[in-house]
Amino acid sequence: MLRVMRPATQARSTCLLISPPRQRILQIRFASNETAAKPTSTTPTQKRKFKLGKFLFSITLLSGLAYGGAVYYSLKDDKFRDNFTENIYGAKQVVDYVEDLQRQGVFYDMKKKVWRIGSKYINLPELSEDNISSDKISEFTSKENPIIRKLSDTIRELDNFMVNHDLKHAGGKILSRARDELRNLSNNIDQLKADEQDLCQKKLEEQNEKYNQIIDKYENSMDQQIKDKEFALKQQFDQEKRELYEQHYTQLNAELSRQASEHDKELKNELVRQAVDMQRRWVRDVMIMVEKERNGRLAKLDYINKRLKTLERFCIDNTENLDASIKVHRLWCALKSLQNIVEQPHRTPFIEQIVAMRRYFSTDEVVSAVLSTIDDSVAINGIDSVSDLSKRFNTVREEVRRASLVPENGGVFSHLLSFVLSKILFRKHGLVDGNDVEAILARVQYYLNKNDLDTAARELNQLEGWPKKLANDWIISARNHLEVKQAIEVCFLLCFILFYFYLNLILNR
């Protein structure tokens, strides 16, 4: 709107200079009223358009300011300088060049030159009214209006002409009055421009307030809709989760009961079969002994007694082996149930399985020691799966990248500068070397893609400072997952050892 009004303002100023003095006041008032009325008629019709050049200039200016601030801060902090020169392309050359200029004293010489030039303008002597010359009129040449500049040049030439021809005393009053009128005209034009800018600013503020009210109202309604939808989805998710848990728990109990009953039946059948075999062998032995006794071999009665004791010992050993087999089978079933819960794609509590194992194997020192390593809070809340940890790492990686350039005792400016510079850092991928934050994050992502959670957690634990604090929760979750998996693997190993131990005892007998 200001660009449209500028030619009209210049035309009116030309009319003011050409018209006689009596009509100047009326024309100035008419011009001021017309310029004040025009913004109200043209303001609503104009639409604000997106300007690509202005947007690119703003982005370039902000990037330059951020880069310059980083260079200045790197001169003050050595740790930030190391991170800045390693991760930003061309930063080392720029910092070295600025340090060379600082050592050569270029900045100090420029500062002295600026103060020396400023002192000349500050200490200029004041001119008296008797020594007024063309320099007095040159103050109008810096005005933006070309007509004012042209009139100033005309008055200056007239003044020089009168000075050169000794006519200064004859036309001095006329020149003084012309200069005063020119000054008043320039002030009136500046006042009209200021009034026009104030009116435009007022209209813009009113439109801005109106649009802000509309946006706030729309945001409030959308927030309420999102909250309602989130609440409904959360209730639906909790209901489905509860139903799935109850269904899985019922199926698990039914399966455990069925396996226990089948195992008891097998044990009873095995005991009956062994008892029948033992009775058959005993009857056979008795018959043999009776025959021998009939044949007069009564000297073999001691051997029969020893054989009977051996059979009794064999029966006792079989009973002990059956008890050990039941113990191993219970441990195996409990471990399989615990492993199935831990390997769920979502977090599932397994405190009931831990309590059952502690109750059944309270006398076993190895199992009790392994179960004591699992914290009760972890058993109550469950552990995150590898897929959940991989998803969480994507969010943690972005937060760590934003704080990767923040020193350990950095302030708000360090965080803001690290956030801005993280947008232009190059991401690293794969199994790369280096101890910087980007290299560590790339190696962690590589090991997570290979399902190697142990190595990924060890790599992420190498972080220091703010990145280590941001990744601490993820490291704790990964450690809990690995501890539970390790406890299950130890219990499985113990189960296999017991199985092979009792199997060797049975085979050796």
From TrEMBL:
InterPro entries the UniProt entry points to: MIC60
Top-level taxonomic group: Eukaryota
Gene Ontology cellular component annotations, sorted alphabetically: MICOS complex
Transmembrane segments: 55-75, 487-507
Protein location: Mitochondrion inner membrane
Alphabetic keyword roster: Coiled coil, Membrane, Mitochondrion, Mitochondrion inner membrane, Transmembrane, Transmembrane helix
One record GO biological process: cristae formation
Bilayer topology term: Single-pass membrane protein
Keyword check for Iron-sulfur: no
Coiled-coil stretches: 175-273
Tagged with keyword Transmembrane: yes
Assembly mode: Component of the mitochondrial contact site and cristae organizing system (MICOS) complex.
Function: Component of the MICOS complex, a large protein complex of the mitochondrial inner membrane that plays crucial roles in the maintenance of crista junctions, inner membrane architecture, and formation of contact sites to the outer membrane. Plays a role in keeping cristae membranes connected to the inner boundary membrane. Also promotes protein import via the mitochondrial intermembrane space assembly (MIA) pathway.
Family recorded in the similarity comment: Belongs to the MICOS complex subunit Mic60 family.
Protein name: MICOS complex subunit MIC60
